[in-house]
Recover the amino acids of this structure.
């Protein structure tokens, strides 16, 4: 049988979904349990979950499974929980060790949107890029600000990232030059996967938004700060961010995260009615970033000013339709403390302060060969629900 260590990210309370393959190379749906993967595709084929049509298991992504709706997917979850709890030995034939499998992108992402929802992050970047006296834009406390990202370059944990090239214009020069970015950065974010669609022309009420969240992942929104700084006015991020976005392979079901809901920061001035939420909508999710073996940030998703429900309500308020498999980035997750900053741009104060790594070297931004790893977990009353990790190593820029 499988082992679930007390400190495992993948406890019986979690049961996240992913896409894996082993020797046969067929992509199958798996559920992480302890150090193992439960092969859901084969279990469905054998009729263990009779409400799940086998065709949904064969597409190499979670999209068709998610489309079945939460009444079915939550049924799978509760049935598997009771089979595990009863130590049913019929489970054994569906268990594979995690170390023996390859993980793939869990969903086919149609559209990817990235928000900008941490007050601390928006303030820090506003000070560095614009006006230290008026760091937050006048719209920021009224609108969950976001931009449309690029889905083609979303990659899974373990994928190498080639240093991007582009136009760079240092303030001391009058015109730009072309070259590899000299300011490659990570952004500590979470992402959520849309699990239910709204029709174009209709909007999702904020109080129903939860039904549209299938689950969450860790997300690193790689950013080339020099390219970004020159290109972003007035339409926002483009080539400075669309070269790669990394996500973790296991999608944590929203249901597994409900025990960790907490109240978010007070929103003042009051938000418009379509954004008003009641109750606990933030999640106490502890987050950590490492560059190679050095911890450079300890943050928490609960610091976010705007929550996922408000992001969904805002995204659809104009009649924009969300589709199953769409990915929403939280925005960089920074806290008040110096140790809780979600990007090197903030940690190095715009490249002015050197960050010491354990090997005696220093960074302002990322160097070729560096590996950035994000991890995260929720823990309360002896229950642990972890996210695993998302990491990526920087490769040198391509020679032209
Ligand atoms: O303030 C800016 O001009 C830019 C900010 C970012 O780079 C952040 C962005 O991608 C959104 C976020 O992650 O919060
Ligand atoms: Ca971002
Ligand atoms: Mg990106």
């Amino acid at each position: 049988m499988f082992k679930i260590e007390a400190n495992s990210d993948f406890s019986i309370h979690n049961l996240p979904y992913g896409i894996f393959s082993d020797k046969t190379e067929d992509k199958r749906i798996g559920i992480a349990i302890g150090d193992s993967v439960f092969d859901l595709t084969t279990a469905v084929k054998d009729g263990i979950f009779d409400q799940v049509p086998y065709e949904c298991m064969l597409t190499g992504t979670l999209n068709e499974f998610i489309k079945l709706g939460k009444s079915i997917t939550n049924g799978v979850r509760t049935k598997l929980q009771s089979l595990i709890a009863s130590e049913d030995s019929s489970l054994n034939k569906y268990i594979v060790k995690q170390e023996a499998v390859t993980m793939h992108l869990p969903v086919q992402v149609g559209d990817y949107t990235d928000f900008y929802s941490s007050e601390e992050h928006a303030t820090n970047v506003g000070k560095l890029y614009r006006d230290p006296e008026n760091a937050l834009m006048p719209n920021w406390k009224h609108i969950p600000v976001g931009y449309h990202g690029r889905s083609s370059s979303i990659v899974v944990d373990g994928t190498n990232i080639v240093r991007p090239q582009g136009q760079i214009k240092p303030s001391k020069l009058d015109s730009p030059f072309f070259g590899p970015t000299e300011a490659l950065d990570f952004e500590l974010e979470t992402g959520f996967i849309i699990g239910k669609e709204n029709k174009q022309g209709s909007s999702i009420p904020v109080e129903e938004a939860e039904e549209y969240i299938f689950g969450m992942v860790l997300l690193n929104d790689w950013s080339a700060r020099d390219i970004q700084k020159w290109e972003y006015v007035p339409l926002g991020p483009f080539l400075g961010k669309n070269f790669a976005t990394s996500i973790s392979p296991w999608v944590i079901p929203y249901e597994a995260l409900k025990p960790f809901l907490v109240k978010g920061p007070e929103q003042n001035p009051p938000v418009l009615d379509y954004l008003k939420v009641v109750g606990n909508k933030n999640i106490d999710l502890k987050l950590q970033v490492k560059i190679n073996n050095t911890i450079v940030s300890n943050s928490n998703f609960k610091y976010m000013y705007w929550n996922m429900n408000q992001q969904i309500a805002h995204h659809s308020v104009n009649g924009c339709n969300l589709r199953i498999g769409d990915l929403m980035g939280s925005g960089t997750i920074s806290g008040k403390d110096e140790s809780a900053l979600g990007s090197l741009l903030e940690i190095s104060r715009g490249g002015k302060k050197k960050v010491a790594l354990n090997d005696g070297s220093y960074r302002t931004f990322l160097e070729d060969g560096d590996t950035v790893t994000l991890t995260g977990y929720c823990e309360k009353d002896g229950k642990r629900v972890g996210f695993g990790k998302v990491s990526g190593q920087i490769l040198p820029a391509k020679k032209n």
Summary: Residues 70-85 form the longest helix (16 residues). The first strand starts at residue 17 and ends at 21. The pocket of magnesium ion (ligand 3) is lined by residues 221-222, 241, 245 (CB under 6 Å).
